[in-house]
Amino acid sequence: MKITFLGTGTSMGVPVAGGFSRNGISTDPRDQRYRCSIWVQTPETSIVVDSGPEFRLQTLRSGITKIDALMITHEHTDHIAGMDDLRPYCYAQNGAIPTYTSNQVVEAIKTRFHYMFEPGKTPGSVDLDFHVIENEIKLSDCTITPLPVKHGTMDILGFRFNDFAYVTDTNFIPEETRELLAGVKVLVLSGLRWNSHPTHFTIGEAAEIAAELGVPKTYLTHLSPQVRHEEAESRLPESVRLAFDQLEINI
Q1: SS3 state at 54
Q2: Where in the chain are the domains?
Q3: CATH fold of 2-250, please?
Q4: Less Cβ crowding at N or C end of the chain, within 10 Å?
């Protein structure tokens, strides 16, 4: 399995629009972050998690030519704003994109992108084939397990793909979900910044969770402009690293 980080930044991206960053703009390319998304490839399957505002650019620089499944963690704009960029994949694949998420996300997408679902919709609009995911599913050579977590008071989904797990935008992992993470070799977990936040783990909290779960390797994502890659990694154990855009992991 190969995982490519399409984006690792927080909701406004890094650097933010207008360059309004308290710490200035970093020259380290690892501190230039599109909105959060990953691409999971197995020998037989191509899966994308979330389609944020830079989705078109992410697909071009990573070379994504096929999407067998789209997984959506939740309905916040930084995770679904790129839905229209799925149009070329519908054309190329001559069909709807299988889309796996929760029922609340399905309803939110149908409301926000209503023109995709109205009777007599514009020809060429995106086609999504929704599947409400509640239990483990099998897509060819990949077993996918939904991982319910909390984003503040909001219920959202992480996903486990075989021995890899992706859990972003969370500040609470219930015990039942921790059990579903048993045996994971690589975990991606949100670690927004060093200081506290009401809906995200801090970097320190994420590192503690990784240690409690006993995961051999953890990568932090959904990073804010306050986080500088080199400085942050110097403060973390070797088992916890910061993800960055275009980082590739092979499992």
Answers
A1: coil
A2: 2-250
A3: Metallo-beta-lactamase; Chain A (3.60.15)
A4: C
**pLDDT tens, position by position, 44-99:** 999 999 999 999 999 999 999 999 999 999 999 999 999 999 999 999 999 999 99
Measure the CA–CA gap between 140 and 23, rounded to whole angstroms: 46
* Residue range 93-117, pLDDT digits in tens: 999 999 999 999 999 999 999 999 9
**Ranges under pLDDT 50 in the chain:** none
How, if at all, do strands 154-161 and 164-167 pair?
antiparallel
Strand order across the beta sheet in which 186-190 lies: 137-139, 142-151, 154-161, 164-167, 186-190, 217-221, 240-242
pTM over 0.90: yes
**Contact status, residue 39 vs residue 20, Cβ threshold 8 Å:** no
Could you tell me the maximum CA-CA distance found in the chain, to the nearest angstrom?
A: 56
**CB atoms closer than 10 angstroms to residue 72:** 26
